[in-house]
Design brief:
- This protein is of the alpha+beta class.
- The strands form 4 sheets. A 9-stranded mixed beta sheet has the order 1-6-5-4-7-3-2-8-9, covered by helices on one side.
- Strand 12 and strand 13 form a beta hairpin.
- Helix 1 runs parallel beside helix 4.
- The radius of gyration is 32 Å and the shape is elongated.
- It binds adenosine-5'-diphosphate and magnesium ion.
Length: 608
């Protein structure tokens, strides 16, 4: 071995993973070809894009992925003209597991039904390693587009790999598999052809297989989205979806249409059936792919608004030039028209899919919080989004919508009531709900992060104001059915006493009819952010100018009735009332240790 060859150990994870892949997926070995071809196609797409945006040599006209089986040498070569890899990229991409560990992979393998196994390979980012299912040794020679030198990576898949300088005339990657004795079927052009047809027909880069010294086309290469719907099968759609989305599930919705007229484009979009396996934190832009006359341009054209970023797919248009620039992506009216048309179409699909409540609930649980961001930030679509929202409710099981809520509103009920917090279960038990429950008034329970924000922007639905029940004074007197059990005390003298005792801690003390079993409750002053929202905002590190809370007291409660007749400044009692109200909302008393001592002393007294 020459001096320039470096030897590297695989990460411990890779070693174990290789073993697993080679042994556990034996019956699905043919998918190694899908993985290598998909990587080659990705690399060519990346080169095309980088050539537009950076100084990288353009992809040659007619570039293809070549597959060359050689029975005499027992090698299978897969070569592409894509972006290539530097020495560091070879070591990093092919020497470590990027996205997840062996343990998760093993677990999923154990849980998977046989038919699901091939998809696991791609899902766990172990695609490249699947080559070792059929090869006893793998050599990769790669030259990064824009770089002068090439590098060779080689491994027998047994714990280590080598890196050495190598020459390659053109940028791209060549992978040579030294095929195992029991895998010679993968040297048969016909067998390879069948695999490509089955797994990779949607890839638009031409793929050829060498046969008797000639390169023969192996894939149809017609862009799937350009075909009439009637010619595409469900399975072809699903396989294409998995390819572009790096996903492994069935799409929940498939939208395939052509727009003709002022804007011309073909679109094939998918709404995933599950949350992405590895959601990129902080990722906010839509990654729907933009093609121009079939050619992939970029996935950074923000074809859909951020709140539809879970949608995957392709938009292919004739209305842009092939050499579209970055600036153009931002400002061209043609693209603005396409964005509008595509967004509208996705919304109308959601509207129609929402008719199947059970199926829509699944979608909502996956992507509802993302969709709600649109209500907060998108003036243009806020109204369209409102009926698509789903909520937990104090009155019904499962999910409900604003139109359904409105249809259940009580006589005399003027507003749509909401309660916001960060824990759905705690919300359902909140004392804030007592008076509403007693009067049979439904309250929507909101517990996602974004719920702290959007109600501020969507303040009405169907002409009914949307109101947080912890904000401002709620007047339930117009609605009948309350439990007016017990006599209300005259709190005329008590209110100013309590207010004086709690100077600087509350902005007001008032009587309320929204409590039944509890003595007190806190509310936010009208006009300021709602109490639970204040808590969420604090947690999200946002500052806000909230006024002091309002202490509301229940004049029918035994404790308040007694206090109404008591003498003195009631300083200690007022403090305890405030602490009780804080506790009910899941907050701590102002002086937790002092509060605990006080309760202990009271208990001791009551046991005397
Ligand atoms: P994944 O494709 O899911 O990222 P793989 O194991 O298939 O996982 O590939 C690992 C990485 O190696 C790829 O993300 C890519 O960066 C790199 N890679 C693999 N094959 C090629 C290729 N033919 N050209 C350029 N880069 C490649
Ligand atoms: Mg891959």
């Amino acid at each position: 071995m020459s001096e320039t060859v470096e030897r590297h150990e695989f990460g411990a994870e890779v070693g174990r993973l290789l073993d697993l892949v080679v042994h556990a997926l034996y019956s699905d070995r043919e998918i190694f070809l899908r993985e290598l071809v998909a990587n080659a196609a990705d690399a060519m797409d990346r080169r095309r894009f980088e050539a537009l945006t950076q100084s990288v040599p353009a992809l040659p006209e007619g570039a293809s992925i070549r597959i060359l089986p050689d029975k005499a040498d027992r090698t299978l070569v897969i070569s592409d003209q894509g972006i290539g890899m530097t020495k560091e990229e070879l070591a990093r991409n092919l020497g470590t597991i990027a996205r997840s560990g062996t343990r998760a992979f093993t677990q999923s393998l154990a849980d998977a039904k046989p038919g699901e196994r091939p998809s696991l390979i791609g899902q766990f980012g172990v695609g490249f390693y699947s080559a070792f299912m059929v090869a006893e040794r793998v050599e990769v020679v790669s030259r990064r587009a824009g770089a002068e030198e090439g590098w060779a990576w080689a491994s027998a898949g047994q714990g280590d790999f080598t890196l050495a300088p190598a020459s390659r005339e053109e940028p791209g990657t060549t992978i040579t598999l030294h095929i195992k004795a029991d895998a010679e079927e993968f040297l048969e052009p016909i067998r390879l052809q069948t695999i490509i047809r089955k797994w990779a027909d949607h890839i638009t880069v031409p793929i050829t297989i060498a046969r008797d010294g000639k390169d023969e086309a192996a894939n149809e290469g017609t862009a799937l989205w350009r075909k009439p719907k009637s010619e595409v099968t469900e399975e072809q759609y699903a396989e294409f979806y998995r390819h572009i989305a790096h996903a492994f599930d069935q799409p929940w919705a498939t939208l395939h249409w052509r727009a003709e007229g002022t804007t011309e484009f073909a679109a094939l979009l998918f709404i995933p059936g599950m949350k992405p396996f590895n959601p990129v934190e902080g990722e906010r832009d839509s990654r729907v792919r933009l093609h121009v006359r079939r050619m992939f341009i970029t996935e950074e054209a923000a074809l859909l608004p951020p709140w539809l970023r879970f949608v995957q797919g392709v938009v292919d248009t004739e209305d842009l030039p092939l050499n579209v620039s970055r600036e153009m992506l931002q400002s061209t009216p043609a693209l603005a028209r396409i964005r509008k048309a595509v967004t509208g179409r996705v919304l109308s699909e959601l509207k129609s899919k929402a008719k199947d409540a059970e199926s829509y609930a699944g979608f909502w649980e996956n992507f509802g919080p993302v969709l709600k961001e649109g209500v907060w930030e998108d003036n243009e679509y806020r109204k369209d989004l409102a009926p698509l929202l789903r909520f937990r409710s104090s009155a019904v099981e499962g999910w409900t919508s604003l139109p359904d809520y409105v249809s259940r509103m009580k006589e005399g009920q003027e507003a749509i009531y909401i309660l916001v917090g960060d824990d759905a279960e705690a919300l359902a038990k909140s004392s804030q709900l007592e008076g509403f429950r007693a009067r049979g008034v439904e309250v929507l329970l909101l517990s996602d992060q974004v719920d702290a924000f959007w109600p501020e922007r969507l303040d009405r639905f169907d002409d009914k104001p949307i109101r947080s029940i912890t904000q401002g004074a709620v007047d339930l007197s117009k609605i009948g059915g309350g439990t007016e059990a017990g006599e209300a005390a005259d709190v005329g003298k008590l209110l100013p006493l309590l207010k004086a005792a709690l100077e600087g801690e509350v902005s007001e003390v008032r009587a309320t009819d929204r409590l039944v079993d509890s003595a007190v409750v806190l509310a936010a002053p009208a006009g300021g952010p709602d109490l639970q929202m204040q808590r969420l905002l604090r947690r999200a590190g946002r500052s806000f100018g909230a006024g002091l809370p309002v202490l509301e007291i229940n004049p029918r409660h035994a404790l308040i009735r007694k206090l109404a007749g008591a003498e003195g400044d009631l300083k200690a009692e007022a403090g305890t009332l405030l602490d009780l109200a804080r506790l009910q909302d899941g907050d701590v008393p102002r002086d937790p240790a002092g509060f605990a001592r006080q309760v202990a002393a009271l208990l001791a007294g009551s046991l005397d």
